[in-house]
Design brief:
homodimer; mainly alpha; Arc Repressor Mutant, subunit A; Tetracycline Repressor, domain 2; 2 domains; elongated; DNA-binding; TetR_SbtR-like_C (chains A, B); transcription regulation (chains A, B); DNA-binding (chains A, B)
Chain lengths: 223, 223
DNA sequence: CGGTAAACGGACGACCCCCTCCATTTAGCC
DNA sequence: GGCTAAATGGAGGGGGTCGTCCGTTTACCG
C-alpha cells in the first residue's frame, strides 16, 4: 500500500457509499448484494463473480465498478450477519448468567455458520488492509474475552478453557457445516452440544492438550 | 456406464495393475504416486494434475494413461494411509479396554487428518462407482459399530453416543485441520481432547441434540 | 543386434474465470 | 425537451487447468 499524502479527512472510502449513487445505481447495488448473499449461501464463497452478476441481472462491469475487489463484495454482503453476531455477543454480555450467555452466543454463531456456506468464510477470512472489520473484530475479541472470564469466575466454564477455543469451535463447526450437506444444521447442533458439555466446568478431568493459540485474524478458508 | 456384454471374468480392471507393466512404466507409476502423496499432503487435493506430473518428472500423458481419472489417482495414493486406519481399528478391537481402543483410534485418525491435507478428502470423499473402497469401508463401519457397542457396554462411552458421531468428529476435525494452518496439529489434538471428554460416560447430563445420521458414504469435501 | 509394441512427453484445443475497456444507454437537472 | 455526466453491459485479452493426440523414444524378446 503506497503511503498516503499525509492528510485525507474521510479515509478515502473506496466504496462511494450507497447514498452518493444515482437511483438506478443504488438499486443495482442492492440487487448485487442480494444476489451475492444468495449465491454465497448456496454455493460457498467461491462462486464466480460472473455468476453473481448474472443472478443479479447486471453486467460484470457494473459489479466490478461497485465492488472492485472480491473482498469488498464479501465484506458488504455479510455486514448484516456480522452485525447480528456482534449483537448476539452484546446480549450475552448483558445476560446475568454468563454461562448461559456463552452458550447462547456459541450456539447462535454456529447455527449461522451451518445455515450459510459463505458466512464462515466471511467470518474467518482475514481481510488484509481492510479496516472495515478490524474495529468490529477487536471489539468482538474483547467482549469474548470478558464473557469467558466472567463465565469462569462464575464457576460454570472450566478454568483451562482458552479464548482460542472459541475459534477452535468455529473451525470445527465449519468443517461440519461444509461437509455434512443437508444434515449440516442437525450435525452442527449436535457438535456444539458435545462441545458445550465439555466446556462446562465439572468434576476434575484429566489434562487437556494445550490450546492451539488460534487467533481470529490468522485464519483463512484453507490455511 | 454402458452395460457390459454379459461376461468378463476379471472385472475389467481399469488399472492394468502394477505387475503387468513394463519396468520403466512401473517405476514411473511409483514416482507418480509418491509425487501425488507429497503434493496432496502439502497443498490439499486440489493441486493440478500437471503439478503432480511435474513433481514426478513425467509428462501429463503418462499420468493420465496410468490414472485415467482424478479419483483413481487419489484412491491409489491414499491406499496405504487407509490401510493404516484400518489397522488402527483392528488394534482397537483387540484392545481389552474398548474405551482405550476407541480413544486411540479416534486420536490416530484425527492426527492423520491434521497432518495431511489431502487425506481427509480421500477419506471422506465418496467414490461413485468405485468398488475399490466399498469393501474396506463396510468393514470399517462394522468394526466401528462393534467398538462403539463394546465401549458402551463397558460403561465408558455415553449411551446416547451414535456411530454417526464418529463422522461428526472427523468432519469437525477436518475443519480444524484445514483452517488452523500451522497450528493444525495442536488444534486438532485439543479438539479431540474436548470431544473425547464429552463422549465419555459420566454423571447424567442434559439431553443432547439428536444425531445427524451422517454416513461415511454420503459425505464429500463440500457437500 | 534388430524389430515391435509399449511407453513417453510436449503441444494443443476446449473450457472457465478474472478483470478492463469502450461504445451505448439512461437518470437527473435546467 | 435537451444536455451531460453517470451508469451500463458485453466483448475480449490474459492466465490457468483439463484431458487428448501424435510423433518420438525405449524396453524387451528373439
Amino acid at each position: 500500500m503506497p503511503a498516503q499524502t499525509s492528510h485525507n479527512p474521510p479515509p478515502v472510502t473506496p466504496d462511494p457509499g450507497p447514498d452518493a449513487l444515482r437511483a438506478d445505481a443504488r438499486e443495482n447495488r442492492e440487487r448485487i448484494l442480494r444476489a451475492a448473499r444468495e449465491a454465497y449461501a448456496l454455493h460457498g464463497i467461491d462462486v464466480p463473480i460472473s455468476a453473481i452478476a448474472r443472478r443479479a441481472g447486471v453486467g460484470v462491469a457494473t459489479l466490478y465498478r461497485r465492488f472492485p475487489t472480491r473482498t469488498s463484495l464479501i465484506t458488504e454482503a455479510f455486514t448484516e450477519q456480522l452485525a447480528e453476531c456482534a449483537g448476539a455477543l452484546d446480549e450475552a454480555l448483558e445476560d446475568p448468567d454468563p454461562w448461559r450467555g456463552f452458550c447462547t452466543v456459541l450456539r447462535k454463531v454456529c447455527a449461522m455458520q451451518a445455515a450459510d456456506r459463505g458466512f464462515t468464510h466471511a467470518f474467518l477470512a482475514r481481510f488484509p488492509g481492510d479496516t472495515a472489520y478490524a474495529g468490529e473484530r477487536d471489539r468482538a475479541e474483547e467482549g469474548l474475552a470478558l464473557l469467558v472470564r466472567r463465565a469462569k469466575e462464575a464457576g460454570a466454564l472450566r478454568p483451562d478453557f482458552d479464548v482460542s477455543d472459541v475459534v477452535l469451535t468455529l473451525l470445527a463447526n465449519n468443517g461440519v457445516a461444509n461437509g455434512a450437506g443437508p444434515e449440516a444444521a442437525a450435525a452442527s447442533r449436535r457438535l456444539v452440544g458435545y462441545l458445550l458439555e465439555s466446556f462446562r466446568a465439572g468434576p476434575a478431568t484429566g489434562p487437556l492438550p494445550p490450546p492451539a493459540g488460534l487467533e481470529l485474524d490468522r485464519l483463512g478458508g484453507t490455511g
